[in-house]
Design goal:
Chain lengths: 414, 205
């Protein structure tokens, strides 16, 4: 219920209103002029409203009439946009082109400068690290499988491999900050001051057999190879003289089953089943029967008796007995096969996986004596030579490879 | 006028029907004039007609904004109250000199060459001076009240609207209208006493 109003004010206001109504007199009537003016305003507003309505109706009509045209235009516009997007998506981006180029250059680059190469998530650099990380016992075991060369030789070859991959100019010697001679190239990997006597011979070999190669700068002393290295260098250099690569076909022998087959080992038996091996200088090319090519370098693993002796001295405290044992080992090694460790990598076209093949090229002593060289693919090595090693496929699965030469093919057919 | 017929009439007015507007003028003009006349004691019939014309003109222009929450007459009264307030403020400004032609008391009329005798703004001599003073006090107190109180008092006593009509016009609860009116009347009394005391006039009641 509303509050009771102030009675005095209520009465005052009512009396006020009553008096004013009485004063107002007769009800007011609108003057005709006022009515006319108000009606004119009404007509004016109605006219404006009609114009607005007509304009809106015109737009509505136009939109209705143009609806098919607009629909077609919208469809065309959408198609154009889709086409542009499609064309842009189809066109290879600069980044993709760069990736393709990098992929195409990967094997060569890996073999030349040692930069990382993708191989199923593992780079070549990593593989080198893994090889270096293998304990000496393990290396010895592996070496027994691969070649009769001592384990220390394989260990010694690893830095050489790194050096050959990281140095594009194998003939140019460099020195480190301490002035020690560093190995340059695959066969100069061992910096052994005690064996520096062969330095002069080595330079002579190089200058006589490789005129196209840049001469040593002589700013730093070259690494001194051993006597056996000198022989090997001489052999390589003589065969490298024509700078013409030759090839030889090899077929695998023995069981084809994967040695360490994984879940995805199917099809691995065809890898390096029959391949052609070619050599150009210290570079090695292998062409698989499916057309896959692998490229790498020879990492000579000669029996470095002097280095072995030094290592024995370091490790065993220059014991006479141990030195004698190392000397005996050296003599035994001299009677064994000449072993050349090589390392190739590439992509298998069938599996679309990176294959890293580490192998030893074994030459029988009598053949080596005849040849006096380590030509992996020369015609003269068709007898008493074989390749042993293991291929790592896709970064994980490994298969054992043992192949023997089956014939020589002309270079132009490779 | 029933709400249905008024709604129909309003629809025709919105469409610009001149006859509908004529009917609207006939129905509401006299009531609007009477309402305006009560708003101030010094408003003449000419003033009321002018204010009423302005109020109807504004209603014609803004008929589309009328939502129909209240009766059209209530809406028209609110417009008329605002127009009357503007009119009176303009009138008072003119009295203070703004817009008023200055007449020289020394100069003669250029047409008659006689001394000028301008009309006085004071009430006519025959008017009841006491009543006029009371009414002027009431009007002055309402003006000082200002805001919502002034509007609700004008609608209630000069527009003669019920609580329900006021509540619809002001979009308030009926009880709120009653309590607001009661408080406003109390405030009006306080103001009226203050003005009477200040101007040495007897309290009107």
């Amino acid at each position: 219920m509303p509050d009771e109003p102030n009675k005095r004010m209520d009465e005052l206001l009512k009396s006020y209103a009553k008096k004013r109504r009485e004063e107002a007199g007769a009800p007011l009537e609108m003057h005709p002029a006022t009515r006319k003016m108000l009606q004119a305003e009404v007509a004016k507003l109605a006219e404006q409203a009609e114009e607005t309505t007509a304009e809106s109706q015109l737009w509505t009509t136009l939109l209705r009439q143009a609806r098919p045209v607009l629909a077609v235009g919208a469809v065309v516009a959408v198609l154009v946009v889709i086409g542009i997007v499609w064309v842009q998506l189809r066109a290879p981006s600069p980044m993709e082109m760069a990736k393709n180029e990098e992929r195409a250059q990967t094997p060569a680059a890996a073999s030349v400068d040692g930069t990382g190469v993708e191989s199923g998530g593992t780079t070549l650099e990593l593989q080198m690290d893994q090889l270096e990380a293998v304990p000496e016992k393990k290396v010895a075991e592996l070496n027994d499988d691969l070649a009769p060369a001592p384990a220390s030789d394989v260990r010694g070859a690893l830095p050489t491999l790194r050096g050959s991959l990281q140095r594009p100019e194998p003939e140019v010697a460099k020195s480190d900050a301490n002035g020690n001679a560093l190995g340059n190239g695959s066969v100069f990997g061992m910096a052994d001051k005690d064996a520096a006597v062969a330095e002069g011979e080595k330079l002579a070999f190089k200058s006589a057999t490789r005129p196209a190669s840049p001469a040593p700068t002589a700013q730093a002393p070259l690494a001194a190879p051993s006597e056996e290295q000198g022989e090997l260098i001489a052999g390589f250099s003589r065969l490298d003289a024509p700078r013409q690569a030759t090839g030889q076909r090899f077929n695998r022998v023995g069981p084809r089953a994967a040695a360490a087959a994984g879940k995805e080992s199917a099809g691995f038996e065809n890898v390096l089943n029959s391949f052609t091996l070619a050599q150009e200088g210290d570079r090695v090319f292998i062409r698989d029967e499916d057309g896959s090519t692998y490229e790498g370098r020879i990492i000579a693993a000669p029996r470095d008796s002097a280095r072995m002796e030094e290592k024995a001295k370091r490790e065993l405290g220059a014991s006479e007995a141990k030195t004698a044992a190392a000397a005996r080992t050296r003599q035994a090694g001299e009677q064994a096969n000449i072993t050349n460790f090589f390392f190739v990598t590439g992509t298998n076209l069938n599996l679309n996986k990176v294959v890293v093949f580490e192998g030893n090229f074994l030459i029988a002593p009598q053949s080596a004596a005849t040849l006096g060289t380590a030509d992996l693919s020369g015609e003269k090595q068709g007898i008493d030579s074989r390749i042993q090693g293991r291929a790592r496929i896709g970064g994980g699965n490994e298969i054992q490879i043992e192949a023997v030469p089956v014939g020589q093919i002309p270079p132009q057919n490779r | 006028m029933g709400s249905a017929s008024e709604a129909e009439l309003l629809d025709r007015c919105r469409e610009g029907d001149a006859d509908a507007w004529d009917e609207m003028f006939d129905v509401h003009y006299a009531a609007a004039g009477r309402f305006i006349f009560q708003l101030a004691p010094n408003l003449t019939h000419e003033d009321v007609e002018e204010i009423c014309q302005e109020a109807f003109l504004s209603a014609i222009k803004n008929i589309d904004s009328f939502q129909g929450n209240s009766a059209f007459q209530t809406w028209l009264f609110r417009i008329a109250a605002n127009k009357a307030r503007d009119y009176r403020e303009k009138q008072q400004a003119a009295k203070r000199g703004g817009g008023q032609t200055i007449v020289s008391l020394q100069a003669n009329d250029p047409h008659t060459d006689l001394p000028i005798d301008p009309p006085s703004n004071a009430p006519a001599p025959d008017a009841n001076l006491l009543t006029v003073e009371k009414m002027a006090l009431v009007r002055k107190a309402i003006d000082e009240l200002g805001g919502p109180c002034r509007e609700v008092i004008e609608l209630r006593y000069f527009g003669d609207l019920s609580y329900e009509e006021i509540s619809r016009a002001l979009e308030l609860n009926v009880k709120t209208v009653g309590s607001r009116l009661s408080k406003c009347l109390d405030q009006l009394e306080v103001i009226l006493r203050d003005i009477s005391k200040r101007e040495n006039l007897p309290f009107p009641v």
